[in-house]
Amino acid sequence: MSAELDMEAARDSASAYLAAFHSGTVADPYAAIEHAIAAEFLAGHDIDEVMRARAASPVALLIPGHGQAIAVGSAGWLLAVGSPLVLYAADDITRQPLRSLSEEELYAADAGPATGLVVCDKPDCTACALTQARLHSRAGAYLCGLAQGAVNAAVRRVQERVQFGRPIGNNQAVAFQLSALTARLTALHALGEHVATRIEAGRTEAETVAPADASRLLAACSELAVEATTTALHLHGAFGLRSDQDAQRFYRKACAFSVRHGTPARLRLAGSTRREGSR
After folding, report:
1. Maximum Cα interatomic distance, the chain, rounded to a whole number of Å
2. Contact present, 182 and 232 (Cβ < 8 Å)
3. What is the pLDDT at residue 46?
4. Distance (Å, whole) CA 29 – CA 214
5. Which residues pair with 109 in a beta bridge?
6. pLDDT confidence tier of residue 23, bands split at 50, 70 and 90
7. pLDDT at position 198, please?
């Protein structure tokens, strides 16, 4: 029965990964992904009364940034990720709206003296570690989707943009560049599906391996998303900077969310530390 549950959980995890990827390919709001993960954080702990109290209001993740905590999307509740894991009512903390980002609402939040509900204060909580791994996996999927969407837009653009009497896509320098990005994206996307499935592979393996794999995956997706969207914007030329063009949307979102959960260097360090600690 346990094996059947693990297989079902693995399928659900892979499905959530693919949903996040497809959301990225059309630059849909990222907030929905974090709202779903916040619900999973809460579901992993025995706080049914809080789940009932929050009704249908979404829960946003409050993730520490450089000197301030940032939340994405409007929500009635904010879940501060870390140890301890604390749930705050949105009205109890100070929120400062930041510049909007292609339909995304960003807030700098300060809990100050607010007293939230401590959901979990265990530094080595397995449920929190696995949910954090799911968050990194789906964030990586979204960034990989942004990269794929940008490459798709670039492929269309290079067939329309004419230089020296022919489309620039006919030039090997351009075609090879897009081909290389496509190959790397395909490989990274396949790796992401594997990692998403492995998170639910069984408690022992998932606890020791999945968080490290998910951190390294997110680091790779972050770097590729910025590279692919930058290349796509370059191939579009000044035309790609227009507010009605997808190229600039993919680029802006990739730059913003590629460091949402830490720089690639920090993510790789976290991944290597977890791996060494599991030996």
Report:
1. 68
2. no
3. 74
4. 22
5. 69, 95
6. very high
7. 87
Rounded Cα distance, 140 and 5, in Å? 25
d(CA 142, CA 90): 26
Tokens 């509900």 identify what position? 117
Write down the residue that tokens 């393996």 correspond to: 205
**Separation CA 50–CA 59 (nearest Å):** 11
Q: Look up residue 99 and give its DSSP letter.
A: P
Distance separating alpha carbons of residues 252 and 155, to the nearest angstrom: 19
Contacting residues for 66 by C-beta, under 8 A, at least 6 apart: none
Question: How confident is the model over 117-135, as pLDDT tens digits?
Answer: 899 999 889 889 999 999 9
- Whether the Cβ atoms of residue 68 and residue 140 lie closer than 8 Å to each other: no
Q: How confident is the model at residue 33 (pLDDT cuts 50, 70, 90)?
A: very high
Name the residue with higher pLDDT: 3 or 59.
59
**Where along the chain do its domains lie?**
2-120, 126-277
Q: Residue 105: what pLDDT?
A: 84
Rounded-to-integer distance, Cα 16 and Cα 137, Å:
9
Query: Which DSSP letter does residue 211 get?
Result: H
- C-alpha 178/C-alpha 187 separation (Å) is 14
End-to-end CA distance of the chain: 29
CA distances from 192 to 134, 185, 215 (A): 11, 10, 11
The mean pLDDT of the chain is 87
Task: Determine whether 29 is exposed, middle or buried from the number of CB atoms within 10 Å of its CB (0-12, 13-18, 19+).
Answer: middle
DSSP state of 46: S
Architecture of domain 126-277: Up-down Bundle (1.20)
